[in-house]
Amino acid sequence: MIALVGVWLAVVGGGAWRWRPAPARLVTPRQPPAAVRRLRVPVAVGVGCVVLLFVWPPLAIGVVGVVSMGPSLARRRAERRRTLAIRRQLPDVVDLLVVAISAGLTPALAIDCLAALAPDPFAGAFDEVRGRRRRGQRLADALDVLPQRLGDPARALAHTLASTERYGTPVGPALELLAHDARRDRRRLAEEAARTVPVKLCFPLVCCTLPAFVLLTIAPLVAGALRSLQI
Questions:
Q1: Residue 128 is assigned to a structural domain of this protein
Q2: Beta-carbon neighbour count of residue 200 at 10 Å?
């Protein structure tokens, strides 16, 4: 119980300090250096761990592990979400390229159009390709920026467009095949997400539904049985 109270106080105190309102002053105070601001969080975490060390040492060790591994886990999760978003947007981007090239545009002009029409982060990558071309770089060489900025999902697209530029291969059929593969990959991602729904529903089921069922159904029966035994 003391450990839970200590954890609750640490969470409430940290949240109150993090989202505290700005001081209402007429004169803006001088901001501390960036190094001091970066040092505040480790100091607060260290103080909290010292307090927990006297209350419950295993909990303090767990908090230190979570704090030390938290930033790296957050970065990995953000990168994974970004990769999934790129894989879901890739079929639409390839379809836009097919439409632009079918309308008579060259791959270079189609990329210039997609720099303004494609969703992020494809728009930024195509804009960088356009900037490299304007600085005199060949399209096949400028397309190397796509896998650099978008990762492995865009590698096949860059290779297809670069092969068209270097070897003169027909770009339309290659892009249609790439769009078909991208749509199939997106469908597989949707099926994988659908299969994870029952696992995600376990948390509200166990933490919300079952306690309510126990309190409304089993608890009255137990209370009635205990009352009858006392009689």
A1: yes
A2: 10
